[in-house]
Amino acid sequence: MIESNYYLSRICEALLISIAVAALATPLSIRLAHRLGVIDRPKDGRRMHRKPIPRFGGMAIFLGSMVAMTIPAGMNGQIKTAMFGGLLMYALGVADDILDIRPVVKFAGQFAIATVVYALGIRITFLSNFFGNAVITDEYANVILSGGLAYLITVFWIVGITNAVNLMDGLDGLAAGSVAIMCMSLAYIAYIHGTRLGSMPVCIALVAVAGGCIGFLPYNFSPAKTFMGDGGALYLGYMIAVLSVISPLKQATVVGALIPMLTLAVPIFDTVFAMLRRILNHESIMHADRGHLHHHLMAAGFGQRRSVLIMYGIVGIMGIVAVLISRELYKDAFALFLIALLYLSIIIVPKRPKKNLRTIITQDAVEAQKENFVDYLNYERERRKQLKETGHAEDPSLFINADPEEGGSTHRKKDK
User: Fold this and answer.
1) Of 207, 208, 215, which is closest to residue 173 (Cα–Cα)?
2) pLDDT tens series, the chain, 416 aa
3) Of 72, 167, 210, 288, which has the highest C-beta tally within 10 A?
4) What residue ranges do the domains of the chain occupy?
């Protein structure tokens, strides 16, 4: 009981420190962005903002989480390694923000950093056993991986999740809020199994990263005053990838290797879906487009704030699924997992069911937006026809008066 209270106080301390430091550092990052010229300008159709916005806010997230990990979390070996790799990944992102380095160079840097982290001892050495007695297992009934296979899986996990989070950074507040939810879910899993498995330092580190996101979020939520940039996005993706596979956290249950995958299911799904879409369109997998989940929500007319809140909800459901799996409540987890899949299918499947699977996968959000606009025109034409047939005059209250920040349009009533 005394030990539990001790760690709970450390968790609260890490959360408060990271939020405070990030909140104080964000205005400084905005001023620094203007000095360095690190400004995101709306130069193509993918960007949702219409005016130049500073994109150096990752500095605030980095400082807030690092300070909180240094003070309350303690400096055990694995946390030190995670922080060192985080510093390298943040530096790579800052270099991209300032110099706009080529994607190939950026990927090479990510693989190099993941290799360094693997060499320093953070590695995936086992997977959950789904093959019965046909494979060699350890005392936890997990499949032991060979050195080469462990290296490949570890490196591709770190690089894959790092870029998955980077791809989420497409709407105001989406990446920061989603990572905060994912980190808190993993932190809770580490906390409830912490006394038995010694994962409390991991729990505190995850809370520190979540706190950095929370402190930054008021400046990043729509309408955003600043963006995190590649420095923040790569750092967050790296930290959640590394902290989710530190060994005590993985050993929570026999299917513990599924826990980080389920928690990060939304960015993983979006990334795999994007790669498949680009391959079917005969494009490079690094080619940017408007086919991500948040683009489809925007095309449906939800606006930035509501689109982000919908994504938060789906990420939160998957976080609860991971918690239930860690407590071996498989039936409950499966039911929630189906609900999350239902919501994802609603987002990506177009209104018109005659389309085949390939068209659904390759559809750009611009095409979906055109379909929605055509549907709206048909609806408006039919409504006006009915009003004319019934002899009613046009009702001014039927005019749309949506918030422009939410992606709507404002129509003023006609002057009499």
Assistant:
1) 215
2) 556 677 888 899 999 999 999 999 999 999 999 998 899 887 655 555 568 899 999 999 999 999 999 886 656 788 899 999 999 999 999 999 999 899 899 999 999 999 999 999 888 776 654 444 444 444 444 556 667 888 998 999 999 999 989 888 878 899 999 999 999 999 998 888 766 666 788 889 999 999 999 999 999 998 899 999 999 999 999 999 999 888 545 544 344 556 777 888 888 888 887 788 778 777 777 666 677 787 778 877 788 888 899 999 999 999 999 889 888 888 999 999 999 989 888 887 766 555 566 666 666 666 666 666 556 666 677 777 777 777 665 554 544 444 444 444 444 444 43
3) 210
4) 2-253
**Tokens matching residue 144:** 């032991």
